[in-house]
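subagent[fold] <- orchestrator: predict structure for attached chain, return tokens only, no commentary.
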Amino acid sequence: MIGPQSYHKLNKTILKIERVLLNYLGTLSGISTKTNKLMVICKKYKSKICCTRKTIPGLRHLQKYAVSVGGGTNNRFNLEDEIFVKDNHYDELFNQK
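subagent[fold] -> orchestrator:
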């Protein structure tokens, strides 16, 4: 039989887990909401909102999913997925300054 102290420890554990999960959910919800607000603003410019690789360690896939739920675009998950050539790279390559 489980005694009252065991129930107390179980309740404390459940509450700790609940708090962590609510924090994660709040963070991901905020990412989706902010992405959606930016999508509404930039809609008339025919542009897209892309997320970066700079995410909280261990949460990359969840954060990128939150961006896509908000209407944003996932460009890559790691450096091996694709290459970005930015304007400063182009200028350096062709000596255009």
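orchestrator: received. Logging for downstream: The first helix runs from residue 4 to 42. Helices lie at 4-42, 60-69, 87-94.
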